[in-house]
Amino acid sequence: MILILVGPPGAGKGTQASWLQKNYGLKHISTGNLLRAEIASQSEIGRTIQSIVERGEFPSDEIVVNLLKPVLSVPEKGFVLDGFPRTLNQIKRLEALLKDMEMALTRVIEISVPYEDLARRLTGRFSCKECGEIYNDYSHLPKIKDVCDGCGGTQFIRRQDDSLQSVSKRLKVYEEQTRPILDYYKNGGLLFTIDGRKTPSELNQEISHHLSQQAPSPDSCLKSHSFSL
Ligand code: AP5
Ligand code: MG
């Protein structure tokens, strides 16, 4: 199974991808996490990426695809792409990569959340430094104060691009560059939209129910590749 999660910043892509990893055994591949790891490594390319990401803009497709390629293996159960593709050109790049792997996309899940709900989600977000488990000051604190539910870690981090200034830029970039990819997948019959205002566990159930329905035929997956961009 190959899934793509699309949605504005703070929609809950990482939260649902982590659940899909735990419950379906899918490998969680987040281009945002790959970029942050490159920044943390202090490499030359990491230093180039840092200011772009912190401003809420996109590094070049070349940079993103070069980070993605080495991790895009085909594990037994498949993978879930979180935050890729997010431009029409990245769709082309993904299709070429999947063709080389002789794989077809299973579903694209859009998590739809009104923009007015997102600032609170992003400014309240923090995550475990050790395992990456995602929390929120307002809606999802660890069960034991300052101890990660997932791994027992006690160090937490906040993202540089979760400042109000970056968030408004990220939303604008989403609207201009990423929203158009939804029409492409809708026309290909692969898009499933969920209401991200529901609780994470309600969304888990909705995704699970949807995935248990008959998968689209290989024909419909291939047909989606023939839509023009
Ligand atoms: P990326 O890391 O992908 O960030 P994003 O797309 O902005 O999305 P977020 O990670 O902020 O939000 P999310 O949807 O994962 O929400 P989460 O589950 O954490 O990318 C960062 C940057 O890297 C980009 O801006 C860009 O610069 C660059 N980049 C990445 N990919 C790229 C690409 N392909 N091309 C070019 N550049 C790229 O949840 C958010 C909060 O809400 C949490 O606190 C959580 O607890 C809470 N929450 C989750 N679900 C719910 C719910 N249902 N109800 C209430 N609260 C919830
Ligand atoms: Mg995320």
Description:
It is a single chain. With 229 residues, the protein is α/β, with parallel strands linked by helices. 46% of the residues lie in helices and 14% in strands. The protein has helices spanning 13-24, 31-40, 44-54, 61-68, 88-100, 118-123, 164-187, 200-212, 218-225, and strands at 2-6, 27-30, 79-82, 107-112, 125-128, 134-136, 156-157, 191-195. A hairpin with a 5-residue loop joins strand 5 and strand 6 (134-136). The longest helix is centred in the C-terminal third of the chain and has 24 residues, at 164-187. Mean pLDDT is 92; it is low at 217-226. It binds BIS(adenosine)-5'-pentaphosphate and magnesium ion (MG). BIS(adenosine)-5'-pentaphosphate (AP5) is lined by residues 7, 9-15, 30-32, 35, 53, 56-59, 64, 83-84, 86, 90, 121-122, 124-125, 134-136, 139-140, 161, 170, 196, 198-200, 203. BIS(adenosine)-5'-pentaphosphate binds next to helix 1, helix 2, helix 6, strand 6 and helix 8.
In short:
The chain is of the alpha/beta class.
Globally, the shape reads globular
Distance between the ends: 24 Å
Q: How large is the count of helical segments?
A: 9
Structural class: alpha/beta
Uncertain stretches: 217-226
Order of helices and strands: EHEHHHEHEHEEEHEHH
Ligand species: BIS(adenosine)-5'-pentaphosphate, magnesium ion
Helical amount:
40-55%
Beta fraction? 5-15%
**Biggest sheet features:** 5 strands, parallel
Oligomer type = single chain
Give me the count of strands: 8
**Overall radius of gyration:** 17 Å
- In the sheet with the most strands, the strands line up as 2-3-1-4-8
- What does the average pLDDT come to? 92
